[in-house]
Design goal:
The chain is built from 3 helices and 6 strands. By secondary structure, the protein is of the alpha+beta class. It has a single domain, classed as Alpha-Beta Plaits. The chain has a 4-stranded antiparallel beta sheet, covered by helices on one side. Strands 3-4 form a two-stranded antiparallel ribbon. The longest helix has 12 residues.
């Protein structure tokens, strides 16, 4: 099992969600976050409005997947989020030791779905 964390531009969320749904990746958590990377808070245009400062608005997706869904999850995120410009984001993949579905108390890969 793997835990995928992706940091993407807010305006790319709908495209990423569509790509994930097309690949039948349904279990996701989405949060609005602030951060900076290589652009170091440089001015960025978001929906026609310039934003400046040390922290830039981003969206964080958290997805637990079984091994067989890992590569298609990564591919879906890249396809939906990529613009080719600085600030497209990052994907982090970590091992996921345990998952418990609270309702049924199922554990492991079956709890992911």
């Amino acid at each position: 099992m793997k835990y995928v964390i992706a940091i993407i531009q807010p305006h790319k969320l709908d495209a990423v969600m569509k790509e994930l749904e097309d690949k039948e990746i349904h279990l996701k958590t989405v949060s609005n976050v602030l951060g900076c990377g290589r652009q170091k808070g440089r001015t960025e245009v978001y929906r026609g409005v310039k934003e400046a400062g040390n922290l830039i608005k981003k969206v964080k997706l958290e997805i637990g997947v079984n091994e067989k869904f890992l590569e298609q999850t990564i591919a879906a995120i890249v396809k939906g989020a990529k613009t080719g410009n600085i600030g497209d984001g990052k994907i982090f993949v970590m091992d996921l030791d345990e998952v418990v579905r609270i309702r049924t108390e199922e554990r492991g890969g079956v709890a992911i779905g």
